[in-house]
Amino acid sequence: MLTTNSRLIDFPVLRDQVYLNTAAEGIPPKVVLDAIGQYAKDKLLGMDGRPLHDEQRDQVKIETAKAFGLSPAEIGICTCSSEAFNLAAIALSLGTDDEIVINDLDYPAGATPWLVSNCPATTRVWRSRNGALRIEDLIPLLNTRTRMVTTSLVSFHNGFVAPIQAICDAAHAHSPSLVAVDVTQALGRIPLNLGDVDLIVSSTHKWLLGSHGGGLVGIPQARADTLTAHVGGWFNRTDPFGTDRFEQAKTLPGAASFSIGMPNYAAIYSIVVAMRYIESIGVADIDQFARPLTLHCLDELKKLPVEVITPDEPESIAGIISFRHPKADHILDELHKRNIHVMSSAGRLRISVHGYNIADDIDQFLAALAEILDA
Predict the structure, then answer these.
(1) Which of 43, 156, 245, 335 has the CA that lies 20 to 30 A from 317?
(2) Angle at 317 (CA atoms; ends 82, 126), nearest 5 degrees
(3) By C-alpha distance, which of 10, 19, 12, 9 is closest to 358?
(4) Which domains are delineated in the chain?
(5) CA atoms of 357 and 38, how far apart (whole Å)
(6) Alpha carbon 106 to chain centroid distance?
(7) Tens of pLDDT along 199-238?
(8) What crossing angle do the helices spanning 50-68 and 265-281 adopt, rounded to 10°?
(9) How confident is the model over 235-247, as pLDDT tens digits?
(10) Separation of alpha carbons 82 and 182, rounded Å
(11) Distance, CA of 358 to CA of 269 (rounded, Å)
(12) Beta bridge partners of 237
């Protein structure tokens, strides 16, 4: 992992703060900021910069394919996971007889495209129990009308890690459903084993340590025809400037259809370098280093007068721990006064532990929290 020196060289902003909020915003290493600067230099070349931009786009597909377990041809680039899910909803061409399964631990990006008033499908909610999703509760929701089961690999709400292969097995055994997985809260933090997933999406500004404005899409070739988003654009066309362009618009299949217009090249430059930075350390090594810190924090939180809502199942925990307290906002304010950064929302406090965190971060947080609760 990082040494004391390399941590401060790569993440100098962490010298004087405890940052435990990667699940909201990742802190990019210096090389990522340098990459955005390189984009600016290439942009100043005008059209001569386009080949350099396109080279970076190709590299994103290569790096993402390695992370997702797919080929570069099965990777698309959009702007965020929200856009990807909305395009998936269009691709499915849903009708009034169709059903979508979402769950109550998921982020709005994966749930709301199926809940908006112009979506004709019926949405069924897979309810969690004690902070975890149980396969036996999913199976009764599946039937011949189920078109998609969608979930985050790691819940933003409480850090629960969904059993993806079991979800795929159940969905494919009990329905014609596709399975969509948002890996935003996992990519760059825990090893991915996505098995038989049909649609993979991710934003890039959290654990991956990239910038805003990046959306990664993975669609296996076997699902390309089923998951082609027929929407307007030009980057997603087979021949956008052909002689018949005002008579027809033929869409590229699968993941390529999710890249509608001019890519956000500034984000792409940052993503390439961020993924290479993560890869140079190793996701498995990041997890091996950060997991004991996460579990130690969870164990110590259980000793305090708070309601821990992260499941007490080590195998189902990644880097996020959540707990409730009636004075959550007050706790947040007091922690910030001590330059300790966590997340608070609706009485829930959330901490997140990445590879750039150290044991002292956890100890400072726990000591400060105990002091605040005792006051």
Answers:
(1) 335
(2) 55
(3) 19
(4) 4-20+282-374 (3.90.1150.10), 32-279 (3.40.640.10)
(5) 28
(6) 11
(7) 999 999 999 999 999 999 999 999 999 999 999 999 999 9
(8) 40
(9) 999 999 999 999 9
(10) 10
(11) 28
(12) 251
